[in-house]
Amino acid sequence: MNLVEAFASRLEGLDALGPWAAPLFFIAAYIVASIAFVPGALLTLLAGAVFGLARGVPIVFIGAVLGSSAAFGIARTIARDRVTRWLARDARAAAAGDAVAAEGARVVLLLRLSPVVPYNLLNYALGASRVRYRDFLAGSIGMLPGTVLYTYYGKVVGDVTALAAGTAPPRGPEYYVFLGAGLAATVAATVLVTRAAKKGLAQRPGR
């Protein structure tokens, strides 16, 4: 039995103890995984296989929001001074950071919809930026479509052993719709940040 199967077995065992034991354990594990750069997709698939769609989606979403908030807090308290010093040496990088902060929740939402930017990396990057936490939290709704999709795929596969072996979930039309929408969100976020950064750069002293 590998770690994935052991984790799923623990969830199933805890589920027999009451309606809250397994979800709380899963959420705690998701928080740790978010901090430790463990990909959330596999955990989301497992949630679908173990909890089903109706229970799995809210459980995963709560874990993802709390986990991303924890990583955001770590980046803001530990790494932010270093990032701020680095930005001060590069006007273009500083302008881009200002642009993300200026666009706020709108850019965070688009980045969350994007399949290009990894969930774990984005948590730390936004924490080290000037984005306000309330905008970061509001933009978290952008994680919901991916959460629903991968939880659904986990339910469809329904076999923890197959998931642990790396069996790819089926990719129906909904996957390609999600991928297309995510790529469009990536382009939109890039355009917004680029425009705001150019405007901010033009307004900086010495330009």
In short:
The chain is mainly alpha-helical. It has helices spanning 3-15, 21-35, 40-88, 91-103, 105-113, 119-128, 133-138, 144-157, 160-164, 173-202. Helices cover 79% and strands 0% of the residues.
Structure description:
The chain is mostly helical and 207 residues long. Helix content is 79%, strand content 0%.
Short descriptors:
207 residues; 10 helices
Structural class: mainly alpha
Q: What proportion of the residues form beta strands (DSSP E)?
A: under 5%
Tally of individual helices? 10
Distance between the termini: 62 Å
How is this fold's topology laid out?
Layout: H1 3-15, H2 21-35, H3 40-88, H4 91-103, H5 105-113, H6 119-128, H7 133-138, H8 144-157, H9 160-164, H10 173-202
